[in-house]
Amino acid sequence: MPDFVQRVSAKNELVPEWASQEVSTGTTIMAVEYDGGVVIGADSRTTTGAYIANRVTDKLTQIHERIYCCRSGSAADTQAIADVVTYQLGFHSIELDEPPLVETAANLFKASCYRYREELTAGILVAGWDKRKGGQVYCVPIGGMLVRQPVSVGGSGSTYIYGFMDSNYKPGMTKDKCMELTATALSLAMERDGSSGGVVRLASISEEGVERRVILGNELPRFSTH
Amino acid sequence: MSGDMGPEWLSEEVKTGTTIIAIEFNGGVVLGSDSRVSAGESVVNRVMNKLSPLHDKIYCALSGSAADAQTIAEIVNYQLDVHSIEIGEDPQVRSAATLVRNISYKYKEELSAHLIVAGWDRREGGQVFATLNGLLTRQPFAVGGSGSFYVYGFVDAEYRRGMSKEECQQFVVNTLSLAMSRDGSSGGVAYIVTIDEHSTEEKVILANDLPKFPDQ
């Protein structure tokens, strides 16, 4: 039945509008390969509509000792998928009796994301290090495709930094240059995308292990535009 | 939709899904645009110049609906001619931008075009104005069009105050090249216009002369 009444405020004034909105990690995530490992990064904002539900979210989720995933899209969907893959990979690794391959983890993500593609909203970057191929980054965007890329960005804020990435990424960069590039790119995206913000979380994964870092808001690189 | 109405793009609106940019330097401005006009998935014009003169030293960059943008530019061109005769001297860039803004704001429900107005006048030198949706704001540089989203990060990182004319031209060319390679609605060649006190210079950069960035 069409609603002819003009409303000045939301239908149910007892509950704010954001309480009925889906929780999303509208976000910016990034992963870069270097010779010997990978660098991954993400912002830290989780939103329900216009309300920031969590301003210090950790979107870099550990799947196995040297395999992480960066989550974007629906917070519930990506957490559920990550839990499932963590279980499957853990089991597989015990059967194999050796650390799992990054490509295996990526394929497990792809399997879930593709099978349930109509119900899910999840864009995931899988990154890590294994003995066979070293540092690898795999992109599993919405829809459930799988592709390996030397550098990949994702999330709502990623559109703003394609130009920056194309011009600043060069193959063969060192780990520190990759960290710097990731932090800079994330800051740029966070500045332009309303759904990205907070702090920058970085991690580097290599044969030696995992190193995690947080860059707080006031330590982020600044840019003079206006 | 079956085929007896003809291909889909015949009934699609013609848009300049595009990348446009204008930047000011000490003594003038540089404007840049791509050259693709699309109707749905078809490219109906691959060499359109989206930098339209409003006066000798004032240009505007067109984006959005091709018809709307061109019409606004033509109307303002006429209004500016009348205005400059009335005041007996060259019009100010701010006047041109205000005229564009007035049309964009008054007809904001019917129109879907965004024009960036840039030029040089004797009083304030080089100026860039954005007139998106009927606002009017002066900025050191402005980007617009569908391709601009992909290069916000790049321009934020690369822009510095006090760049020279040549640096601004290179900045514009790099930005256009990056946007054109990512945005399906931008492409073709790059048109560059440099306006300063002494001259208004128009240049075309063909696709193979555009800067290339290492692809993934």
Short structural summary:
Chain A has 226 residues and is an alpha+beta fold.
Describe the model.
- Chain A is of the alpha+beta class.
- Chain A has helices spanning 75-96, 102-115, 162-168, 175-192; strands at 23-25, 29-34, 37-42, 46-48, 51-54, 60-64, 67-74, 122-130, 134-140, 147-148, 151-154, 200-206, 209-215.
- Chain A is globular, with a radius of gyration of 19 Å.
- Chain B is built from four helices and 13 strands.
- Chain B is α+β, with helices and mostly antiparallel strands.
- In chain B, helix 1 crosses helix 2 (93-106).
- In chain B, strand 8 (113-121) and strand 9 (125-130) form a beta hairpin.
- In chain B, the strands form two sheets. In chain B, strands 1, 4, 5, 6, 7, 8, 9 and 10 form an eight-stranded antiparallel β-sheet that branches. In chain B, strands 11-2-3-12-13 form a five-stranded antiparallel β-sheet, covered by helices on one side.
- Chain B is globular.
- The chains are: A alpha+beta (226), B alpha+beta (216).
- Chain A: It comes from Solea senegalensis (Senegalese sole).
